[in-house]
Each structure stands twice: as C-alpha cells, then as structure tokens.
Amino acid sequence: MTVWDRLVGQRPVVHALSQAASGRGMTHAWLFTGPPGSGRSNAAIAFAGALQCEQQGCGECHECVTVAAGSHADVNVVRTQKLSIGVDEVRHLVRSASLRPVGRRWQVLIVEDADRLTDQAFNALLKAIEEPTPHTVWMLCAPSVEDVLPTIRSRCRLVTLTTPTTRDVADFLVRTADVTPSLAAYAARASQGHIGRARALALDEATRNRRREVVSLPSRLTGLGACMNAAANLAEVAKEEADAITSEYDVREKADLDASYGVVERGRRPREYAPALAALDKAQKTRAKRQVLDVVDRSLMDLVSVYRDAIALRAGAPGELVNEEMRGEIAELARVSTPEEHLIRIERIFQAREQMLDYNVPVALALESMMVGLQLERSAR
User: Exposure check for the chain: N or C terminus, fewer CB within 10 A?
Assistant: First the structure.
C-alpha cells in the first residue's frame, strides 16, 4: 500500500501531488482545502511521506512509515484541541522552519486547522512563507481558501479535495477496516463522505447507537416537553462523549506537568508550579469546550440529514437516502410536512449552530431554542 492509497476518492489530487513529489510543479507552500472529512490532513501527511521517500511514496520504507506514524524527525505536524492556534505556537514552528533538515531531503511543517490561527499567528506565519528557507515546505489545511488570509493563500499552491462518494468510502472501509459490505455501506451513507466519521461508525457500536438516537429525534418532537427533554439529552450525551475523549489527555498532561516540576519526587510544589497548573487548567477547559461543540456539531449535521431525506423523498429524487434504514419514519415526516417546512427546520438547525460556534451561546440554551422551533413549525401546520 502506497501513501496515496489512504486518500479516498481523490484521484486528481493524488496525480498532482505525486507529480510534485517527483519534481514537477514543486513549491515551498501548499494550501489543502476541502469539506470536513475529505482528508485534508491525510493528503498533507501522504505528500510529506512522498517528499521524504526515495520512491515518492512507496508506503513501506522507513521514511514513509515514520511520517505516517508521526515520528519522522523532519516532519512537524501542528494539531490543536483548543478553539484557536496562538502566536506562540506558530513562532515555535517558524523557529523550527529555520533549521536544516536532519535527513537529506525536506523539512516539512504541516498546520492542521489553519483556519483556527489567530490574526497574530497568521502574521507570524506570513514572514516565514514569504521568505522560505531552502528545503522547507509549508502545508496548511483549512476548509476553504476564505478561511486563510489572502496574503497567505496567494503564496501557496492550492490543493482542493472533494467529498468522496459513498461507494468510494464503503470500498475503503471494506479494504482497511475489515467490516462487512452492508456495515460499510451504512457507515458510508451515514457519514456523508466524512472518512473519520465513517470509520467510527463502522468500528464502534456505541457511536452507531448515539447516532441512531439523534436521527430518531425529529419524529419524537411532538410537544414542548419532548423538545426540552431532547435538548437536555443531546447536551448531556455530548458532554459525556467529550469528557470520555478529553479525560485521558487531561490525566496524562497533569502527570507530565507534575513530573516536569518534580512534584512527585520532591513532595512539594515549587513557586513556578501554580501558574503552570493554572495555564494547564485553562487550556484543558478550552479543549473540553471545543470537544463538546464538535460532538454537538456532528449531531446537528445528522439531524439535517433526516430533513434532507424527507425533502428528497417528497420530491421523488432518485437514489438511496442518507438514512435509508429508517425510510418508514422519514416517509411519515415527508407526509406531514412540506419541503418548505423542512427547509425552515434546517435553517433553525444552522441558526443554532451559528449561535454556539460564532456567538458563544450556551449549548443547552441554543439546543432548547432549536428543538422548540422544530416542533412549533410542525404544529403550525
């Protein structure tokens, strides 16, 4: 398996990057864009492996294996669990970019979620991209070019990924996750082309159960009490899932902090420990908040898929539904409401999403307003 085999449904991208890795069209800065789950960071990491590999991405040599594992000395990947990437992190990365590569080929710096860079961080990055050092390659990943400053994107070669087809995702799961074709087909449809989400749905029954609970909500929003309960349950499940994801990180980071300040060995806390602990606590709370928002956001997109299916069914659109396994419930939704009313529901969902992500409205409050709005539109009819 070559490094390119991990990219699902991205043949034009694979061709362009493999050509660049062999020396045709190579440049010092790249911007990878595409919808969530399309594989932006996977494409960047695959390209980094190809640049370090003598055979442009064989997938089996030491260079390819260590890049994929995240342990290659000349490939630095910046990820964040926080709401933003600050200037200090970028300045550290810029200092790394000024060093010569340990090996004989490239120093590669990959910034995932480049859309989360603060304005100060973007400005710190701009100078490094404007005046690149030899053998240094920058790779930025963002949902769209509009998420990156014009002065940055104008200096990058654009690589645009698309949402892979359901068939491509299902074939990938059967090939790499060792699941049955029927389960792979369900995960591919339900994920709507999001590779990471598809793997989670295919491999984890708890993830499948949580999604089934979410997509069953529209048919149960028959009164104010049901709406409030649905909002409370969704907020609680999101927090529980986020806590399960972040708690392991929190414990490990606290242990590392204690070890670095000698708290365990010395049995006392030095003066510098308290501010460091406060900074860690603040960072962990920020990460927990982002994780809750990420979980809720996935649930909202699952809700949207139900209403889109109802619109498609009412309009007689060909092809399978995203939620094909609940066609009966969706047929009932299509019967009791017009497509225009379902579009209003979808608008309500995106309003709640905007409130939480852009205006910092508390999750529970935004969900309560949204659920009531979904039910009231049906009652009005």
Answer: C
User: Do residues 171 and 196 both lie within one domain?
Assistant: yes
Q: How much is the pLDDT for 81?
A: 64
Task: Say if residue 101's pLDDT is above 70.
Answer: yes
Question: Do 197 and 224 sit in the same domain of this protein?
Answer: no
Task: State whether 253 and 371 are in the same domain.
Answer: yes
Task: Write the pLDDT tens digit of every residue in 309-346.
Answer: 999 999 999 989 999 999 999 999 999 999 999 999 99
Q: What is the pLDDT of residue 380?
A: 42
- pTM value is 0.83
Q: Are residues 13 and 135 both part of a single domain? A: yes
Contacts of 246 (CB under 8 A, 6+ apart): 81, 284, 287, 288, 291
Burial of 269 (0-12, 13-18, 19+ CB in 10 A): middle
- Map residue 260 onto helix, strand or coil: helix
Say how many domains are in the chain. Answer: 3
> In whole angstroms, what is the distance from residue 363 CA to residue 294 CA?
11
Question: Among 199, 226, 233, which residue's Cα sits nearest to residue 378?
Answer: 226
For position 287, what pLDDT does the model report? 84
| Same domain for 260 and 369 | yes
Cα–Cα distances (Å) from 64 to 159, 176, 233, 361, in that order, read 21, 18, 44, 44
**Considering the domain boundaries, does residue 211 fall inside one?**
no
DSSP string of 25-62, one letter each residue: S--SEEEEE-STTS-HHHHHHHHHHHHHSTTS--SSSH
Enclosing domain of residue 261: 220-380
User: Other C-beta atoms within 10 Å of 275: how many?
Assistant: 9
The answer to whether residues 22 and 67 belong to one domain is yes
| Ordered alpha helix ranges (H), 316-338 | 327-336
Residue 209 lies in a domain: no
